[in-house]
Amino acid sequence: MNAPGGGQVDPKRLNEAWKVFAGQDPAEVVREGFWPKMLKFVARVPFASEALAAFYCATDPATPTKVKGMLLAALAYFVVPVDLIPDLLPGIGFTDDLTVLATTIGMLAGHITDEHRRKAREALKALKQGRLPGGIAMTADAGSSEERKNG
To answer: 143 falls in which pLDDT band (50, 70, 90)?
Structure first.
């Protein structure tokens, strides 16, 4: 997979680096913290729709594993409360998160489908109304979330 500037990105090494940095697997970080953070900050996250589309792409079984790894690492950076610029700073708090996510999405845009974007629009509408989108349930432990499986 090519990185900006023509270099190669090794998703396996990226995920291993993330585990060392954060002490957790990016998929676990996203699974536990994505929906609570989106629900709490949706009004202040200028890239909420893109983050949601990236989430739906990363959790789509049809998405290639390498793409999932890259998206999960970027989403995990958004979810983790410790980052370069604190998210609570008005106006600039999400600047670093936006940079990481926009760069990743730019590299992988061809994998984010119209269906992922449709789900993102529906989820954003629900979040702006103060509720979780259909199929998502908050668990009792530490506000984590999980997707309900239908069928």
So the answer is: very low
pLDDT in tens, 33-59: 888 888 887 766 778 899 999 999 999
Give 65's Cβ-side CA count (13 Å radius). 4
The position carrying tokens 């979040």 is: 127
List all residues 6 or more positions away from 88 whose beta carbon is below 8 Å from its beta carbon: none
Strands (E), the chain: 136-138, 145-147
Phi, psi (rounded to 5 degrees) for 146: -150, 155
126 close to 135: Cβ distance less than 8 angstroms? no
CA-based nearest residue to 31, from 90, 94, 76, 96: 76
Q: Is residue 5's pLDDT more than 60? A: no
